[in-house]
Amino acid sequence: MAVCSRLSLLTSLTATCSPRRGWRNLSLFSAPSPSSWSKVVSDAEKIVGYPTSFMSLRCLLSDELSNVAMHVRKLVGTKHPLLNTARGFVYDSKHNLQMRGLVVLLMSKAAGQSGSSSDALLPDMISGIYPSQRSLAEITELIHTAFLVHRGIVNLKEWTFSDGPLKDMQFGNKMAVLSGDFLLANACTGLAQLNNTKVVELVSSAIGDLVQGVYYEHSTCTEEGKVCVASWEEQTFLSHGALLAKSCQAAMELARHDAEAQTLAYEYGKHLALAHKLNSDLQPFLKRGSDPVVFSLDSAPVVFHRLLVGQEIWTRQLQQAQSSTTHTDYTKLWTGIRSGGGVKQAVDLCTQHGNTALEAILRFPPSEARSALENIAGAVTRF
């Protein structure tokens, strides 16, 4: 009864909210191709033994967070992005699937037992996965969710009356900070309970990478093309790939696999995350719907376009698309970017990272779990 009431509470506070156009997309792991992606995920979840889309709900349904949800209800009627983030916790649509935990579980099952003489000291596997590896998958999701909540903080300098009362937006920012901190604290507690120093170091460094990646997220490339693309990839890895890559490596460490297996798992997670980010960035340029075109000016196709046309032409295109200091005609920009070569370069780089992830996972023994990881890598390179 208590769990049902908490779910009802979370559902009610998110039912009336809708994402604001032009704001940062906070999907948990948005699908590159909804129909095929959902099939790949559904098949993969059967292999690990249970649906992973609500993996972090055990923490989210705690008494402490239920009290937080009561306060967040005050934001209903405003456009604070914390509401949209909260909706993603309980609304499992084809566009919102928590994938990091699922990949960690599949990687754990694909690697299997380490075969070392000390393996007898490990607890028994359940569906081919150690309990500590399942705990790690939950911790990974909690860390990712905590950063999603933190990233939902509104820049009050850009606040307008249509967003809602200023005091409510300030309150929403406080709740985003406190809720994210709460989730991160729970993840760190679970991490300590794994009793593995190397795993703690790996995941802790991934948290540091996330912070650094967000800090440098909107840095401007000023060097020559090669350096700029390398900088973009480095920043994208920090903010989108480090957590998955190091969690996959940590899963191998928990099962006491050797350094080679850990490196392969790391490489798969790294390149899968980069390929997925590129795929996500490309969607506005490959699929044009009825909604107004909105995309990030820091996305991969835009970065490549800027490098191809040069800073002078890019500045002129931006000025032509800006009818005022606060409004940008994204449709006009979209047309110029779409007709250039930046989109093709981003597609090629996405395919390259996807193929590198495939090469890494093919070094593992054939199994259902390995096939699922192959399918996931293939899905993020389809457009």
UniProtKB/TrEMBL annotation:
It holds the Pfam family polyprenyl_synt. InterPro entries: Isoprenoid_synthase_dom_sf, Polyprenyl_synt. Keywords: Transferase. Gene3D superfamilies: Farnesyl Diphosphate Synthase (1.10.600.10). GO terms for cellular component: mitochondrion; transferase complex. One of its GO terms (biological process) is isoprenoid biosynthetic process. One of its GO terms (molecular function) is prenyltransferase activity. PANTHER family: ALL TRANS-POLYPRENYL-DIPHOSPHATE SYNTHASE PDSS2 (PTHR12001:SF55), GERANYLGERANYL PYROPHOSPHATE SYNTHASE (PTHR12001). Belongs to the FPP/GGPP synthase family. This is Decaprenyl-diphosphate synthase subunit 2. The lineage of its organism: Eukaryota, Metazoa, Chordata, Craniata, Vertebrata.
